[in-house]
């Protein structure tokens, strides 16, 4: 099977998995064109936008198409972002994450700078790649016919939280999140570090 066909099958498999997980939610799909010179990095990128519903009271945005960009031995990643509202900004933020992933090979416990607050007025200007605690392992683990995808959380965090993670480790930062009972979709949440 050619790579483009394998990639299309992976995208379809991720979409089917996400639709199955979010049964009862309205879901729209956007084909994302990263533009000239960047399109080739993630050629089959799509972003699924999931409305609040029975599984979650927030909006969710999920990539489909990252897997084939950086897969290793049939294993690859996609990303989910939870947000308080529907906004095309989140589609763009995940497209940026997908492009960054293509060049930097993101993985669990990695982070990336956003360059600005993820929402106006927020202190969060980085994304931390974490397990999707809001949705659990049933979303995270996406088996495909000849491969496996993990859907990891792109969690908005502050620069101070990223510095804390570098100094004390990922587990220590997650403990702070738990101790402070953060609401990860709250754009005005204070930094825990």
Summarize the structure in words.
- This protein has one domain (3-158).
- The chain has helices at residues 3-21, 67-70, 88-104, 137-140, 159-168, 170-179, and strands at residues 27-31, 46-50, 59-64, 75-83, 111-113, 124-130, 141-143, 148-158.
- 33% of the residues lie in helices and 25% in strands.
- It is α+β, with helices and mostly antiparallel strands and 193 residues long.
- It starts with a helix and ends in a 14-residue tail after the last helix.
Q: What is the count of helical runs?
A: 6
Strand fraction? 25-35%
In this structure, how is the largest beta sheet organized?
A: 8 strands, mixed
Q: State the share of residues found in helices, binned by percent.
A: 25-40%
Radius of gyration over alpha carbons?
16 Å
Mean pLDDT: 91
Q: Helix and strand succession?
A: HEEEHEHEEHEEHH
Integer count of domains = 1
| Measured distance between first and last alpha carbons | 49 Å
Low-confidence stretches: none
Which short descriptors sum up this protein?
alpha+beta, 8-stranded mixed beta sheet, 33% helix
Summarize the structure.
The chain has 193 residues and is of the alpha+beta class.
């Amino acid at each position: 099977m050619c790579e483009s066909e394998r990639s299309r099958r992976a995208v379809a498999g991720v979409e089917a998995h996400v639709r199955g997980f979010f049964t009862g939610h309205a879901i729209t799909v956007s084909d994302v064109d990263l533009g000239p010179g960047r399109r080739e990095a993630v050629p089959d990128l799509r972003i699924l936008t999931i409305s609040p519903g029975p599984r979650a009271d927030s909006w969710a945005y999920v990539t489909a198409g990252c897997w084939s960009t950086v897969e290793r031995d049939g294993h690859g990643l996609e990303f989910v972002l939870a947000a308080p509202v529907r906004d095309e900004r989140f589609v763009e933020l995940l497209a940026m994450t997908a492009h960054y992933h293509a060049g930097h090979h993101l993985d669990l416990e990695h982070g990336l700078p956003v360059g600005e607050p993820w929402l106006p007025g927020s202190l969060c200007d980085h994304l931390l790649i974490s397990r999707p605690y809001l949705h659990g392992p049933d979303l995270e683990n996406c088996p495909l016919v000849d491969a496996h995808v993990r859907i990891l959380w792109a969690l908005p965090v502050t620069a101070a939280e990223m510095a804390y993670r570098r100094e004390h480790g990922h587990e220590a930062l997650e403990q702070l999140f738990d101790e402070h009972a953060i609401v990860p979709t709250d754009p005005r949440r204070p930094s825990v570090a």
